[in-house]
Structure formats: C-alpha cells, structure tokens
Write a structure and sequence with these properties.
single chain; mainly alpha; 0% strand; membrane; transmembrane helix; Amino acid permease
C-alpha cells in the first residue's frame, strides 16, 4: 500500500534546476493571501451560513479560519521542501506512496471541479439580482436554479462555466495588473459594505445567537471553510520568500487573521441590519439550504429574509437604504468571481495533467493543443463536468462537497509532514512548521472535525467518489503507473508546461 514512493531526491534534483529568486517579504505574502482568500465564500455563502447557524455564523468563521491556519503551517513546510508542481498530490507521492497520492489527487480533482461549479452558481445569483435591480428583468426561477433548489436548470451558471472553459483552452494569459484590479474591486466592495452597515447595527438582531446550537455553528463552519480556499497560494510561494522561517508564518497567519476579521465584520453587518435567523419549517425545524422546501418557505414570505437571497450582501444593502451601493457590490461580484472560476478550473486541469503524466490516468488526457499549447482534452472534460454541476446543483451542496475533498487533502499533507520529520529528519527544510507535534495533530483533528460536521449527504457523496477512485486505481492506474513500472523520470523541471493562464490571486 505504501511501497510505491516517487523518489524525493529525483523530484528535488529537477526542482533545483529552476532556482527562483527570493523576493517576497511578510507584507507581500500577507497581501497575496488576502487576495487569494477573499472572494466567493463571503459573497455567496453568507446566506447558507445564516440558515445553518443564525448569528452564530460569526463564530463559524473563527473555527474555519483556525483550522486553515494550522493546516497552512503544515502545508508551508512541504511546499518549501518540495517546491514542485502537483501540490498535495506530489507531496503525498514522495512521502506516503502511490495509493495515498492517488486518493489525494482524486480528492483534489473533486475539490477543484466542484468548487468551480459552486462559484459559477454564486456568480449566477448575483448576475440575476443585478439584472433585476438594474433593468427590472425577472427571469423565471426555472431557468436560474437547479432542480434541488426549486427550479429546472441554472442557465447563467452554465454559460459562465462554458465561457471560462473556452478561455482556458485558448490560453489567454491574464496579466498581473488585471488580477490586482479584480482583487482591489472585491476588497473595496466588502469594505464599503462594512462602512455602511456597521453604524446601523441593532444589537437585538443578534439574539438568539445560536438558534440551532453548537451543531449548527459547526455545520456552518464546515461550509464556510470554502470561504478560505485559496490560502495555500501563500504556502506554495515558500521558495520565493525571503527568510521563509520568519516571513511564512507572518504571511499565512496574518492573511488568515485579517480575512477572518473582515469576514466577521461583514457577517456582523448582515446580522445586525436585516437579521440572520434561520427559516423554520411547519414542524419547527430549520430547513436545509438549497432545497425545494426552503425555496417554498421563502416564496411564502416573499423572499424577505437574507437566508433566501442568492446575493446576500447586495440584498442587505438594498434593504437598509443603499440600493446604488448594493448595485455596485453586485457588479463587483459579477466582475471578480469569473477569475475565481478560472483559478479553480486551472488547478483541476493541472492536477489531472500531472497525474496523467505519471501514468495514473490515460496519457491521452495530457495531450497538448498544437496551436494553443494547452491541455485541451482535459480542459474540455473538466469544463463539461463543471457546466453540468453548475446547471443542476445548489451552491451550498457544491461548496460542501468541494470542502470534503480539500479537508481530506489538507489532513493528508499534515500527516505527511509528521511522517517525513521521523523518516528523513536531516533533509533541508527552508521552513519548519513550529511546534510540529502540536500543530500537525491540531490540523488533522480540525480537518476531521469539519469533515464530519458536513451533512450526511455530502459525506456519502465523498465516500462514493473515494470508492470510485479505488476502483479506477486498481482497475487501471496501478498497472500503468510509471513508478510501478520502474520509470522514475520526473518532469518538475518544467512545471509551467504546458503554458496556461496564470491563475488569478
């Protein structure tokens, strides 16, 4: 089970050929982390969290941020020591063997593809709300929500996913300037939201604080984890960091702390102005987000609750007398979120590409387009699945399933760090996780805790995906693996091939 290990020395030997200039300080790393983290989750999942936890969702942000923090410190040690393409998949291959690496890669495929679908659905909610507030257009719910959410098909989500797929295949390179502008738009929109809502907060809106108890707060934390996805962008910059032992923890913890405070201020603004109590069913129990039952209950109250909104922040601003600013926040989400879809799909195709190159998936998938020089086959396949996910599933379910894959991968990396400390203690580590025997177990326990705080439906879907992965591995991948056949060639000397868009920060 753990026998087939991809030789770490061979990976590092090729990685050394691409020595990167160490230019990033603590401030740059913190800004990189803030840019990568703030985005989809806070724009889209605030209503989901309110339905699960009520005002207690503020505490949910703290729990999710803490788990991300300890996992990030473990991730940073591996990223600094094994600065190559493939992320957690490559780390696991080098430490715990092929089967674990396969399962991590399989989980990452799930994470990225479904996350891209979730962002597409979130974008759709803001786009439809913007059309309504700008032009008075009321698109029938049947065409803007999937069957689980009271509609038939989410057409805008399908269209944006298809457009990003086409962009990835063509290989249009986004400039750093454009990405910086998009990050600025997101942060400015959220800052404006905080400035306008905090002064009109009513303390009475915060009671009852936890209407569904700590279980509701835990469930919301497991969903809100999605709002922090992207922080590992800081970890993977370890090789380009000046004095990484000092600056990496500052960048990681600093960016997560700032984002958590920002998120709590935004959540306070929502709760204290329009309230965030869950919508209950006839039996007095809270209805599950993204279900026809909740859609029907929301229709009965004329969508007059933040938990009913598909564009929670813009809706809140309109309710408190700032319709134009609500329009601006909606426009900011519409402009900024497609770059997040691109980042997620880029990550998925890269993991798939590396696994295909290792022989674990058909090499046909790693074919490069003769004109655009992009892995068009796997990009098309990814785009097809993302489009289908976006068309038929609600954002909350997609985010939760994506989180299940992320939590599995982060737990695997945290285990790998401890294993490698014991099996290879003398290897050079540009960054060492502080208090490893406390930090890594906390990360593992935190990931397991959040995983089992997800809904039973989500856990069942992840288990089904894992079983399918094991079947594919033993039926196909094990016999065709390059490592299994004695081929230990590594390609990390050219981690940026084939050329593709730079994923946005």
């Amino acid at each position: 089970m753990f026998g087939r290990v991809k030789p770490l020395d061979a990976i590092l030997a090729t990685a050394e050929k691409k020595s990167l200039h160490r230019s990033l300080g603590a401030f740059q790393l913190t800004m990189l982390g803030i840019g990568a983290v703030i985005g989809t989750g806070i724009f889209v999942l605030t209503a989901e969290a309110a339905q699960k936890a009520g005002p207690g969702m503020m505490f949910s942000f703290v729990i999710a941020g803490f788990v991300c923090g300890v996992a990030a410190l473990c991730y940073a040690e591996m990223a600094a020591m094994v600065p190559v393409s493939g992320s957690a998949y490559t780390y696991s291959y080098a430490v715990m063997g092929e089967l674990v690496a396969w399962m991590v890669g399989w989980a990452l495929i799930l994470e990225y593809a479904i996350a891209a679908g979730a962002v597409s659905v979130g974008w759709s909610g803001y786009f439809i709300g913007w059309l309504n507030s700008s032009f008075g257009m009321n698109v029938p719910l049947e065409f803007v929500r999937g069957p689980f959410d009271g509609g038939m098909i989410n057409m805008p989500a399908m269209l944006i996913a298809a457009a990003v797929t086409a962009l990835l295949i063509k290989g249009t390179k986004e400039s750093a300037t454009v990405n910086a502008v998009l990050v600025g738009i997101k942060i400015l929109a959220l800052a404006l939201f905080v400035v306008l809502t905090i002064p009109v907060i009513q303390s009475g809106k915060f009671t009852p604080f936890a209407p569904l108890g700590f279980a509701g707060i835990s469930s919301a934390a497991a969903s809100i984890f999605f709002a922090y996805v992207g922080f590992d962008a800081v970890s993977t910059a370890a090789e380009e960091t000046k004095n990484p032992q000092r600056n990496m923890p500052i960048g990681l913890i600093g960016s997560l702390a700032i984002c958590t405070i920002f998120y709590m201020l935004v959540a306070s603004g929502v709760i204290g102005t329009v309230g965030a109590q869950p919508v209950m069913g006839a039996d007095g129990a809270a209805l599950s987000p993204g279900t026809p039952q909740l859609s029907q209950a929301c229709a009965a109250i004329h969508e007059n609750a933040v938990v009913c909104s598909k564009e929670a922040l813009a809706w809140t601003l309109r309710q408190v007398g700032y319709p134009f600013v609500g329009w601006l926040v909606g426009a900011a989400a519409i402009i900024a979120l497609p770059s997040v879809i691109l980042m997620m799909m880029f990550g998925q195709t890269r993991i798939f590409f590396v696994m295909s190159r290792d022989g674990l998936l058909p090499e046909f998938f790693s074919k490069v387009h003769p004109r655009f020089h992009t892995p068009h086959v796997i990009t098309l396949l990814t785009g097809l699945f993302v489009t289908l996910f976006a068309a038929f599933f609600p954002v909350g379910l997609l985010a939760d399933v994506s989180n299940s894959g992320t939590l599995f991968a982060f737990a695997a990396v945290s285990i790998a760090v401890m294993v490698l400390r014991r099996t290879d203690p003398t290897r050079k580590r540009p960054f060492r996780t502080p208090a490893i025997m406390l930090t890594a177990p906390l990360a593992i326990v935190g990931c397991v805790y959040l995983f089992f705080s997800l809904s039973l439906q989500t856990i069942a879907l992840f288990v089904a995906w894992a079983v399918l992965g094991l079947f594919v591995y033993y039926a196909y991948s094990r016999s065709r693996s390059h490592v299994g056949r004695g081929l230990i060639e590594t390609h990390e000397a050219d981690p940026d091939a084939p050329p593709q868009p730079v994923p946005p920060l």
